[in-house]
Design goal:
Layout: E1 2-8, H1 11-18, E2 24-32, H2 41-45, E3 52-59, H3 66-76, E4 84-85, E5 88-89, E6 95-99, H4 102-117, E7 126-129, E8 133-135, H5 143-146
Parallel strand pairs: 6-7
Antiparallel strand pairs: 1-3, 1-6, 2-3, 2-8, 4-5
Domain Peptide methionine sulphoxide reductase MsrA: 4-153
InterPro entries: Met_Sox_Rdtase_MsrA_dom (IPR002569), Met_Sox_Rdtase_MsrA_sf (IPR036509), MsrA_MetSO_reductase (IPR050162)
Keywords: Oxidoreductase
Length: 163
């Protein structure tokens, strides 16, 4: 199993979307890249902790590649929008790909470079080694499963589209 961390705005929808993808074996929502140990949701929303709302995603790389995960990720984010996805605005809603292993850095870098070559707009997706990841509060975990009519800026039907 391999893992990657993805920030794509509100983490509820990002988690719900990736939970539908074949080859993804586990997800958790949380906060990463920040300056405060184990922050609360309220602290993160203040904009003072520098955390991004993100998901930890575990996947079986024999069933789905990191490149395929990144293609799926790009279906649900606006890669040109700085600190805003859907109706959510603030640094915690930035877009980013955070990795643990150096080999993943090159895969992410190559992917982003290819996407940038195909676009006249500047892509603002962060590509960084994960600095930290703290699980979000329990009520955020699988939120849209528990609250099917909860707010989500992501069209979950995109999980079923062929690439």
């Amino acid at each position: 199993m391999k893992s990657i961390y993805l920030a794509g705005g509100c983490f509820w929808g990002v988690q719900a979307y990736f939970d539908l993808i074949d080859g993804v074996t586990n997800t958790k929502v949380g906060y990463c890249q920040g300056d405060v140990e184990n922050p609360t949701y309220e602290q993160v929303c203040s904009g003072k902790t520098n955390h991004a709302e993100a998901i930890w995603l575990e996947y079986n790389d024999k069933l789905i590649s990191l490149e395929k995960i990144l293609e799926k990720y790009f279906k649900i984010i606006n890669p040109y929008s700085l600190n805003k996805q859907g109706n959510d605005i603030g640094t915690q809603y930035r877009v980013g790909i955070y990795w643990e292993e150096e080999e993943d850095f090159k895969i992410v870098q190559n992917f982003l470079e290819k996407k940038q070559k195909d676009s006249s707009q500047k892509i603002v997706v962060e590509n960084q080694k994960v600095k930290n990841f703290f699980d979000a509060e329990e009520y955020h975990q699988s939120y849209l499963e528990k609250n099917p009519f909860g707010y989500c800026h992501i069209d979950l039907s995109l999980a079923y589209q062929e690439d």
